[in-house]
Amino acid sequence: MTLLDGRATSKKIQEELKAKVDELKKAGKKVPHLAAVIVGEDGASLTYVNSKVKTCEKVGFESTLIQLPATISEAELLAKVDELNKNESIDGYIVQVPLPDHIDEQKVLLAIDPKKDVDGFHPENVGRMTLGLPTYISATPNGILEILDRYNIPTEGKHCVVMGRSHIVGTPMSILLGQKRNPGNCTVTMVHSRTQDLKSITKQADILIVAIGKPEFVTADMVKDGAVVIDVGMHRIPDSTKKKGFRLLGDVKFDEVAEKASHITPVPGGVGPMTIASLMMNTLKAIELKGQL
Ligand SMILES: Nc1nc(=O)c2c([nH]1)NC[C@@H]1CN(c3ccc(C(=O)N[C@@H](CCC(=O)O)C(=O)O)cc3)C=[N+]21
């Protein structure tokens, strides 16, 4: 079994990005600038956003963190988005989701200038991604493509089963892996909470991508021998014996599935760090894509 080491791969990508930033600097060009908006004080969301900002520093990007109270109105958040659209120093930005219930998430995502939408969540960019036009591919699916590529995992003609149909992972992942591209050219099946006879389908997967949001849902009996297993789940389970007061679990029962898989991503240290690395790649792309979007 080969462990797909997202942390090490992310570090490698960060070094490559740093080298590109150094070149930009040498040429007297602008360094990429990422802004992140976070609404409210959810602990996990704050951890992710802080790690995005920290990674900007590591690769030499400029970054701006905008923390807003959970009580902010939709209109006030939309005004902030408008300000970021107009701010010429900022190349790309993200609005961390989920947003509080009183704010219409779609409305906010629609207000983001597609040119600065490094999350690739704007409907225009989702459309461009679907049609294979130049755009930002959202960070988690892009990170998964990147790790498959860097570990030279063959995907062409393989049966890929994507578990979950969220707008940020399952849906784009199944579209991308079915496309005429590399990694890609897969035969894709998407399964979800209404799927009948789930196990009979997951057992057919050469590549199994799990993004259903249920801790340790995927067990060894659901996986084919030699499958490549990508675990997108991230759950904080309260645990008083841990320093932080919790431990992290994925959507896959790691120990037993690892015995059957040919390759598997751990949690933590798998897809999470790859998501951050690919957000950085998209931020550099924001400069490169200028004029193409
Ligand atoms: N607009 C928007 N864009 C996002 O990309 C976005 C978002 N909203 N909302 C939340 C999800 C989640 N997400 C993660 C990023 C990194 C880790 C990560 O680095 N995880 C570490 C562990 C971190 C920990 O200790 O909790 C790991 O897996 O090793 C996890 C999750 C980005 N998201």
UniProtKB/TrEMBL annotation:
SUPFAM superfamilies xref list: Aminoacid dehydrogenase-like, N-terminal domain, NAD(P)-binding Rossmann-fold domains
Query: Cross-referenced InterPro entries, in alphabetical order?
Result: Aminoacid_DH-like_N_sf, NAD(P)-bd_dom_sf, THF_DH/CycHdrlase, THF_DH/CycHdrlase_cat_dom, THF_DH/CycHdrlase_CS, THF_DH/CycHdrlase_NAD-bd_dom
Q: Which CDD domains does the UniProt record give?
A: NAD_bind_m-THF_DH_Cyclohyd
Give one GO term, molecular function aspect.
methenyltetrahydrofolate cyclohydrolase activity
Q: Which reaction does it catalyse?
A: (6R)-5,10-methenyltetrahydrofolate + H2O = (6R)-10-formyltetrahydrofolate + H(+); (6R)-5,10-methylene-5,6,7,8-tetrahydrofolate + NADP(+) = (6R)-5,10-methenyltetrahydrofolate + NADPH
Example GO CC term: the record gives: cytosol
List each copy of the Tetrahydrofolate dehydrogenase/cyclohydrolase catalytic domain by range.
4-119
Which domain of life does the protein's organism represent? Bacteria
Keyword annotations: Amino-acid biosynthesis, Histidine biosynthesis, Hydrolase, Methionine biosynthesis, Multifunctional enzyme, NADP, One-carbon metabolism, Oxidoreductase, Purine biosynthesis
One Gene Ontology term from the biological process aspect of the record: L-histidine biosynthetic process
Which pathway does the database say it acts in? One-carbon metabolism; tetrahydrofolate interconversion
What EC number(s) would the UniProt record show?
A: 1.5.1.5, 3.5.4.9
Note the PROSITE patterns from the entry.
THF_DHG_CYH_2
Does the record bear NADP in its keywords? yes
Which parts of the sequence bind NADP(+)? G164, R165, S166
The segment(s) forming the Tetrahydrofolate dehydrogenase/cyclohydrolase NAD(P)-binding domain are 138-288
User: What is the recorded function of this protein according to its Swiss-Prot or TrEMBL entry?
Assistant: Catalyzes the oxidation of 5,10-methylenetetrahydrofolate to 5,10-methenyltetrahydrofolate and then the hydrolysis of 5,10-methenyltetrahydrofolate to 10-formyltetrahydrofolate.
Q: Which family does it belong to?
A: Belongs to the tetrahydrofolate dehydrogenase/cyclohydrolase family.
- Subunit structure, as described in the record: Homodimer.
Report what the protein is called: Bifunctional protein FolD
The organism encoding this protein is Parvicella tangerina
Q: Which gene encodes it?
A: folD
